[in-house]
Design goal:
The chain is an alpha+beta fold. Helix content is about 30%, strand content about 20%.
């Protein structure tokens, strides 16, 4: 196993590529590797992510991190066995003291890791499964078995007397760990902190993912006409994304006409009709790195109320983008957005997610979270290398239409660069009459 480049030092994005300058345009370099361009360096990516996790662990006061969240497992170990495992709770990993990471995987996947994941110690790739959301009952003893194995590895690493951060687990697994002598605390915050700052490889993957959605929105703009249904657009977008190389189309919202207000966050078989306002959100990933990318269109024509709603949503979004630079706190960004009450909601929690910012990475929602409901009293500092989405929503005065726009941004050393590039400065009219 090659461990020469593994280090607990926190590496900043510029440290990871001596040729990178933030005044250069972020590349979207395609899906393949070539010998004549430096593209995503997966070895560098894995070293960077593990170094961030190790540094976060070292600074946390914890002895180890026990991970069941598949995003955290991938971040630390560089392993992934398919999107089907995302909600199964069948895999786990351990980062203990100064030891290299352990990963317990689903049956033969552990054997695959030993053969193909040469950045991992083969002896640390183990077959294992715990509860699978309770379908394997705790009485069978697997949770007890693995809790005791984990405690033994904590002793080997010399950290058995220190608290262990767990991101999330089945309730019965918490009990099994405690009975084995493990002192469990919240580890998700530690991992979220590690994942905040992206290196150039992560940023390139996020930009590549966004470029795929650029193309899907051009297709939607061409296809959006009467006789087409919301679910037809969802089907066409799924097909196009998978053909372009997506590894997971997590969800697509497709919402039109009277369904726009209030925002239902879904899609149906509703037919698009002339004059409909319609908005879409495309959530998909390329090599694990996700998009959250809204666009609004009108079908054939637009009424003044719909244009007005779009203009306001755009103004609120642009005001937020203008605030993004290193050192600015998230409360200052949230403060430029309208209050929930001014939009007809009783409080900020009732309007949560409508004027919103959230980190993007291996998960759809990472740090920073920007919301009037959260950020005004709990601000965090925006830093170079963060990547997040900013989204606004404005209901129209007609009582049922609404506009929803979202931009993905990379925080540079001076401000931010928008990487969601399908035109949205003005309300797009598809198949104009």
């Amino acid at each position: 196993m090659n461990t020469t480049a593994l280090s607990p030092r926190i590496l900043r994005p510029a440290d990871m590529d001596p040729n990178w300058r933030w005044d250069k345009r972020i590349p979207a370099l395609g899906h393949t590797a070539v010998d004549f361009e430096r593209r995503v360096d997966h070895d560098r990516l894995r070293r960077y992510r593990l170094s961030r996790a190790k540094a976060a662990l070292k600074g946390s006061g914890l002895g180890a991190l026990l991970l069941f969240d598949v995003n955290n497992i991938r971040y630390v170990t560089g392993t992934k066995i398919g999107e089907w495992e995302r909600d199964k709770m069948c895999r786990f990993a351990l980062l203990a003291g100064d030891e290299e990471p352990y990963v317990w995987d689903f049956g033969s996947a552990a054997v695959h890791h030993r053969q193909y994941c040469d950045w991992l110690d083969p002896e640390h790739c183990r077959a294992g499964v715990v509860g699978m959301r309770g379908t394997i009952p705790p009485s069978f003893g697997l949770m007890k078995h693995y809790a005791e194995e984990i405690y033994g590895l904590l002793k080997k690493a010399g950290v058995a007397d220190m608290p262990v951060g767990v991101d999330y687990a089945e309730t019965a697994m918490f009990f099994a760990l405690q009975e084995a002598g493990v002192r469990v605390v919240d580890g998700q915050q530690v991992m979220l902190g590690a994942r905040e700052i992206k290196n150039i490889d992560e940023i390139q993957l996020l930009n590549q993912a966004a470029s795929m959605v650029d193309g899907v929105y051009h297709m939607i703009w061409e296809e959006l006409k009467p006789g087409v249904r919301e679910n037809d657009i969802v089907a066409m977008a799924n097909k196009m994304l998978y053909e372009m190389g997506s590894d997971d189309v997590e969800a697509i919202n497709a919402i039109a006409g009277e369904r726009c207000n209030p925002h239902p966050h879904n899609f149906t078989d509703r037919l698009f009709r002339p004059g409909d306002q319609a908005f879409f959100d495309i959530l998909q990933s390329y090599q694990g790195y996700r998009t959250c990318y809204y666009r609004t269109f009108n079908v054939g024509r637009a009424k003044p109320d719909q244009v007005d709603a779009y203009t306001k949503a755009r103004e609120w979004l642009d005001a937020a983008i203008a605030m993004i630079k290193p050192g600015v706190t998230t409360d200052k960004v949230a403060a430029v957005w309208p209050t929930a009450e001014s939009l007809g909601f009783p409080n900020e929690l009732a309007a949560f997610g409508l004027q919103f910012g959230h980190g993007l990475g291996l998960a759809l929602h990472e740090r920073p979270i920007i919301s009037r409901a959260v950020s005004l009293e709990n601000p965090m500092v925006i830093e170079t290398g963060m990547v997040f989405a900013l989204e606004t929503y404005c209901p129209a005065k007609d009582g049922y239409s609404a506009a929803r726009i979202e931009e993905e941004v990379v925080v540079t050393d001076k401000g931010c660069e928008v990487i969601s590039l399908f035109p949205a400065e003005e309300l797009p009219i598809a198949n104009r009459y």
